[in-house]
Amino acid sequence: MSVSIRLRREGTTNSPYYKVVVADQRSPRDGKFIEIIGNYDPKKQGDNAKIDISRAEYWISKGAQPSDTVRSLIKRVRKSEVAGPQ
Questions:
Q1: For residue 24, pLDDT beyond 80
Q2: Fewer Cβ within 10 Å of end Cβ, the chain: N or C?
């Protein structure tokens, strides 16, 4: 079973938000998942993503492949954690 970390679309028409989930690659975008590790709201300005970095690192160490978008979100969240609250 190959596992991926990807976005799961939720919300209404023209007002989407996403949950960052760990799922089997074969399952559909909004289908069955293993664990929710964060969320992302593209309509919100500023700090619009919250991801549990420790869980993301755990799944990556077990072989999970993050999608391109999730990879950039993880990078951005790590950068904001290092900078600290302003």
A1: yes
A2: C
